[in-house]
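Researcher: Following up on the earlier apo prediction. This time include the ligand. It's zinc ion, with the SMILES given after the sequence.
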Amino acid sequence: MFRWFASKFIKHWDETDRPEVRMACGQMASALSIGSNVLLCALKLATGLAAGSVAVVADGVNNLSDAASNIISLIGFRLGSRPADAEHPYGHGRYEYLAGLMVAVLILAAGLELLKSSVERVLHPAAPEFSWAMAAALAASILVKLWMMAFNLQAGRQIASRTLTATAMDSRNDAIATSVVLLGMAAAHFTGADLDGWLGLGVAAFVLHSGFTLVRDTLDPLIGRKPEPEVIDAIRERILACPGVLSTHDLMLHDYGPGQRFASAHVEMAEEDGLTACHAALVALSREFLEKDGLHIVFQLDPVSKADTEENRLRTHVSRRAKLIDQRVTVHDLSLTRAGESVTVRFDCYIPADVEIPEPELRRVLENIVREQYQAADCAITIDRDYMAPPH
Ligand SMILES: [Zn+2]
Ligand SMILES: [Zn+2]
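Model: Understood. Below is the ligand-bound prediction.
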């Protein structure tokens, strides 16, 4: 369905890694949603107001807030696809998240308003008149929303857009909410019970819930959320698969919006492989990441040698002893410097987040391990609790 529309209206529609194609797909999906939502809202307001049903009016306002959110996504796609400029070297991708946040605030405001009018209706019941026009508007709305769900789901998958997948989920929820209103109205009509205020309350709670969810989903990437573990694992696997790479640590990933991701990682390679060869392998690897995944990644090369140096002996000692804390503990970036009599030992220790040992305790254990060999050593230890390292 999405494919049909896209192939009719967008040039090179299947080359979705091109920013202009991505923008066009996003805009087309948003424009269709705006049109449908405005239409549904008008239908429900007209029939709902005529019959005096607070639940149907609430449902119509819900569609209006959806239209507002589609407009903001449309603007988000437009602004977000602007290329990087002098002031914004990482592109404008986060506009898409910012647009989502504004939508969320609008939805919350609409939800509060609906809550108020529904509570009033529960306190002062006034049964709405049943009208077939209103029932028809609701039934049509359910069908349109199911169609919008399918369409946005396909479009969202095609261009990997959170905004569109969120719209699809919202459409699904709207279809459910409207079904409940329709069933409630039918029940009221045939049994004479007055459910209007309660149905309105249900719809209002629903609108508020979707607003809160949207706040959370758009705020997280703006503040800088930990990426999905699958993403980190996939990057690590790819780095480890590169010929010559012995291990990797201290991966950092920054997300400035779709297609604008930046990363850095340390990579251990054998000193004996030669600097030029190692460098060439890493250049090829980072190029591959850029071409295949649109990920800009920079590597720090950590040479490790098999030679019998003082540092290597200490590293082996610390690694072996640290494994007694947990088998998965590893040690990296160890250096040993002397100034006159004093010795300074620096290193990072990776320990999985699920190993429950308080940090001061862990430091004390590690320092004692070092001091088994260098009694008076000063230790500067960085604890990495995750493969995603904080800056250090
Ligand atoms: Zn580290
Ligand atoms: Zn390192």
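Model: DSSP finds eleven helices and six strands in the chain.
Researcher: Noted. I'll compare it with the apo version next.
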